[in-house]
Protein 1
Amino acid sequence: MEAQHQKYFARKLSELMAKNGITQVVLAKKLNIKQPAISQFLNEKAYPSTMTLIRLSEIFRVTLYELTNLETLKNIEVAAKKRPELTPDQEKLLALYNELPDDDWRKKAIDELLLKSKD
């Protein structure tokens, strides 16, 4: 990871945490990671995994581009906006999915839906 992107990310994460009143401990619990990892992100000592970046964007309701300032993500997000609109039911389902506490719960939910769709 380039130093400029890591610095941008650390600054943006700090800003979002302050704006939303979220502590390192609370954020670590939401991400299901240890608090020292958050400290390392904020001090430019480590960079989060892709899944952690996605969860951060969901928690703070920002795009991945806003969170990372990576130009390639901006291009992906522009392309994604060209998708058809979701129906109200799809929006509700997506919102429920995003509220699940972690990836294990999400996987279980998808597996359960797939099993029910086979019936």
Protein 2
Amino acid sequence: MTSNKPSTSMKERQVAHQYRATLKWSRGGAVFTDQRYSRGHTWTFDGGIVVPASSSPLSVRLPYSVAEAVDPEEAFVAAVASCHLLTFLYVAAKQGYVVDSYADEAVGEMTKNERGKLWVSKVILAPAITFAGDKRPSQEQLEELHHLAHEECFIANSVRSEVVVHGAMSFV
């Protein structure tokens, strides 16, 4: 017998927010079936910004990829790093710390999974954070801020990749 009542899992999946991206690509007269077509395309977001995108030149050789464009792997790394940054700022402010600047040189590592398929298995964050004001975190407190940021980050909670933080701090 089936029930019309929503299951617990359906309740958990109620949509809190939706995010949209519009992608556009055109063949541009290329034969296509010979694999000699441009992978260049655009991503358009709700605020109107248009981002040039492409496959990575590491995956598809030039000129079929566009080196100047953002590739999905870079965007993934940037999304993880950006979410951590924004969540870190939130957590730090909530605990009374003043962050003066935050810079990160995030790196994604691609390896093969258990099925032999390539995936971004690890994202390494290396934020350099400058704090201002009288309240200054210890190294242990900084690590706790990063831990809390990671635990609350929507993107980190959405991926299987390992996220590692090797942060540094300074003071003004």
Protein 3
Amino acid sequence: MANMTEAKTTSADRGNVAGVFQLPNFDFEAMFVSQRETMETLMEVNKIAIEGFQAVMLRQFESGRQAMDVFSMMVRDFGQPSGSAADRVAKQAEYSKQVVEKGLSNVREIGELVTKTSTQASNIINKRLTKGLDEVRDYSKKHVATV
């Protein structure tokens, strides 16, 4: 009999504990919507990153092609001596100046592409992060008020 009374008391105590520590209803639908939006954001950021990477690679390829064109002209002109030695040196110096200027321009342009891509991606991530924190705040306000 003592075991029966003890079992009832324990069961009643458990009921009271459950009442004291009542957990708020968890909104699975809101969680799934939030996670879907997060995944969509990640896919968008990945798309921007891939497009940015492709743009940078294409620009680097074009820069290399231009450098090879100038180098070919330098070799061709060097192999066909015309004019005085001073004229040839001046022409080679002009080619070198063009290569350096174009190279710096290309580096600047590639840097701008990388900056543009990373800024776009950061803005999208920041927007989603802010929205996610707002969702947590709103959820907690709603459920703390009902408990």
Protein 4
Amino acid sequence: MSKNDKKTTNKERTKGEKGPEIPVRRKPIQTHQQEHPQHGQGFCVWFTGLSGSGKSTTAEALIPMLHECGRTVTFLDGDIVRTHLSKGLGFSREDRDTNILRIGFVAAEIVRHGGAVVSAAISPYRTTRDQVRKMVGADQFIEVYVNTPISICEQRDVKGLYARARRGEVAGFTGIDDPYEAPLNPEILLDTVKGNIKQNAVKILKYLERHGFICPAG
């Protein structure tokens, strides 16, 4: 059979005959809703409170619990950020705001890419915290107010900063001669006098579980 005959035969077959049907695998339609629709999405746990209130201590207890739930966590500690990202800034209101907004920007970028952030900074001004909430996203920002009385914070102050501020040796110290504006409606309110560190960390963990940001460990 010549090449032309073969071409003619192929054309006739194409026009007049149906070839064998090739089965197509179709993905089943997912009709069920996820039990935890936000699981795996980014979120930011934002600790705020006076110096010595227990922000970093509670954060450091929370982070291993989040690891057990399968989440990788970025910890933005206020003191550490000031020595690196915000090196050179002072403690004027403008500099404080700049510091907090820098932390907020980093947190927002991590959350935007699906990461989990825990931040512990005094963040004394309500309007600045609200700006950070908008940057991160209101649905993914969990404000944790560590409501510890200043008298307790002073007792815990191993560096003696409160005493120095009361003697006038340190100016612009939050809670002494610079205001701390407590959150009006924080997602979580912690009492570090009645509740211990582990209890408070678990309280935050349960909140994240209820709102679908994490699945229970194990």
